[in-house]
Design brief:
By secondary structure, this protein is mostly beta strands. The chain has a single domain, classed as Jelly Rolls. 0% of the residues lie in helices and 47% in strands. The chain has strands spanning 21-23, 29-37, 42-51, 56-57, 66-72, 74-79, 85-88, 92-95, 101-106, 113-122. The protein is globular and about 45 Å long.
Length: 131
Amino acid sequence: MSRYTHRTRPLQAQIAEPGKTIVTTDGIVRTTLQNYQSGTGDEFKLVLTTYPPGVGLPLHHHPTVAHNYVLEGVAESQYEGEPLLRFMAGESYQDKAFTKHLIFRNADQHTSLKYLIAYTVKKDEPFLIIP
């Protein structure tokens, strides 16, 4: 048994801000697991995101880079001037800053997409900006 076993808690117990789960009208669930606010006004967030089967986002962009890790399902993503890419469970990818994000969707019509996303934004500013 690892010497760190006593520190391990179920995922739900690790949510830093209980009640910080947001559900959109199309069923996308975003739960803030960690939120660190720096003295300079930046917020570092770790968010667990779940997309229902076949759901995607409209054209949008991000004000900063983000790191993503797919836990379950298949994500499809395409930035302006680039090919459509697929990311499977166990793969990671980066969101680009200030670039049109043409497509982001759950590519599977039967299974949910679940991924972790980590990013930094100015306090109270959104990470997802829809024109």
